[in-house]
Amino acid sequence: MSRYPAGRALPVITRRIAQEHVQLYAEASGDHNPLHLDAEFAAKTEFGRPIAHGMLALGLICEAMARSFGRHWLNGGGLRARFKGPVYVGEEVSIHGEVSRELIEGGQRRLSCNVALRNSKGEDVVTAVATVPLPLGETG
Amino acid sequence: MTLEADEQLTIGPFAVDAGAAEAYLNAAGGEASFYRGMGATPPMAVAGRTLGLLIERLSMPPGSVHIGQELDFLDAAKPGERLVCAAKLARESRRGGWRILQLEFTVNAEGRRVLGGRTTVMVPEEAH
Question: In A, which residues are within 8 Å of B74 by CB distance?
Fold first, then answer.
């Protein structure tokens, strides 16, 4: 029996995205877009206040996948993500996911997972399909 | 700079050193010991730095919005490893005062392909 049957939930991870996290991400990436860092600038945009970098939000999803699948994620993992809404700075978000299916093709085994970043209102503002290769022999 | 459709752009060499990886992990809540144990750089630290450099090179204006991202983590880069990105504009369209750019890129580390991706960004038209 598979250790990762369809419907198996991934551990939920909750985190508050503080201004400090956004600042650290800006330094690490070099992306200093004022939409993320400058409240006065962000107030004049459709968002009204600073939002987190999309790649920082995606980073939370990736770290959740790394916790679940370890080195398999780093060497062959893949993501197809849509940013459906903003993640506001200061907001508490959570990562939810579940295994959607397992594919075995040409001697390769891949798990596909539906993963979402949910905001404090319960809206899925980043959705992603994440795939991860696993050894054929790895069972529960 | 303005990139024409299918025009290739090379960025680098650049590196994600241990300090940048730590800043990324502190931001995204990753476990440094996990990556240290494998001698690997967090792949999203590489992806984020790559996108930051693309934004800078293409002079994307303040207020640009990231709307879609595809990533393939092909192999882990080592901390401080010499990285080179090859990117191209795969698609461009216009909608309601925005230019919508789709950029495709790959990142090689010492000749090894470590990352592939496709980024979709909305750029305010009047600012560009």
Answer: 75-76
